[in-house]
Amino acid sequence: MSEDRKRTPYVRLGRSATLVSRLWLGTVNFSGRVEDADASRLLSAALDRGINCVDMANIYGWRVHKGHTEELVGRWLSKSGVRREDVLLATKVGEDMSDRVNDGGLSARHIVAACEQSLRRLDVDHIDLYQMHRLDSAAPWDEIWQAMDRLVSSGKVCYVGSSNFAGWNIAAAQETAMRRNAMGLVSEQSIYNLAVRRADAELIPAAQAYGVGVFAWSPLHGGLLSGALRKLAQGTAVKSAQGRAQELLPALRANIEAYERFCERIGEHPAEVGLSWVLSRPGISGAVIGPRTIGQLESALRALDLNLGEAELAELDALFPVPGDAAGPPVTGAG
Q1: Which residues are known to be catalytic?
Q2: This prediction's pTM
Q3: What is the dihedral of CA 54, 58, 64, 68, to 10 degrees?
Q4: 40 within 8 A of 231, measured Cβ to Cβ
Q5: Cα separations (Å) of 218 from 50, 264, 280, 313?
Q6: pLDDT tens string 208-225
Q7: How far is CA 213 from the centre of its chain?
Q8: Are 69 and 56 within 8 A, CB to CB?
């Protein structure tokens, strides 16, 4: 076992007994922004450094075709010599896979069919963490849990998680699961970073109350918190010049300017400061990172060893104050 693997911290997956790395390798940039060969190298590098969770969704890879990322990970598993038991595979269901009727959402019919399709693409016999990509208001919780219980009892799914839920969705899901004597959710993926903190208001408290681990997606808000202004000035911006980072930058330019000055003063990279802050937050189990290069992966790993002091954390809170209702700005896109 390498030194990197020894020092990589692990946490329980919610209230389950399974240990997961605090950093998960997100694959949303694969199949379009990262070439397949480079993606396979990233997967191997992450595993070698102790990251044991690969996070996907059945729609990922849509820039090529929906499902392409699961196929890519399946090929990597079969060709890399990696032991299946060393990798925790997490994928998601719920987004539309086509324009066909019933080929999306969280009906029992679609949940079961989509799981079978993900298993085929991944070429495995079980999914470790099967996550609802977002709430489906048309699907009753009894119907959802009927399907999830069937998949768990058949051994095709180990645990069930959620993504992009509100606190009251967590409560409704767990109360229904408890009535069915089921474990319910073990994890929730929520957007959470210095710039978008509305999960502080009720999502994180609800998750803590029900034993659900929260893993932050977009911990740098699409590159906004990774030195966006400096990169824009240098002409080296990629993600920080587009998407959610570009949408929020005009409203937060003064905050980001102060943030980058703060990082320069303490001698740390903005990306590592932003990720370290997320990992320091009460109720946050870990974060889903989406590196496009080995260098970005190494930067994220360095954030694990960056311990911000109380004064520095207080200054960051002052730079990005939480509104009274912790609502934060509107967010587009999903993890």
Answers
A1: 60
A2: 0.93
A3: 60
A4: no
A5: 21, 22, 15, 19
A6: 999 999 999 999 999 999
A7: 12
A8: yes
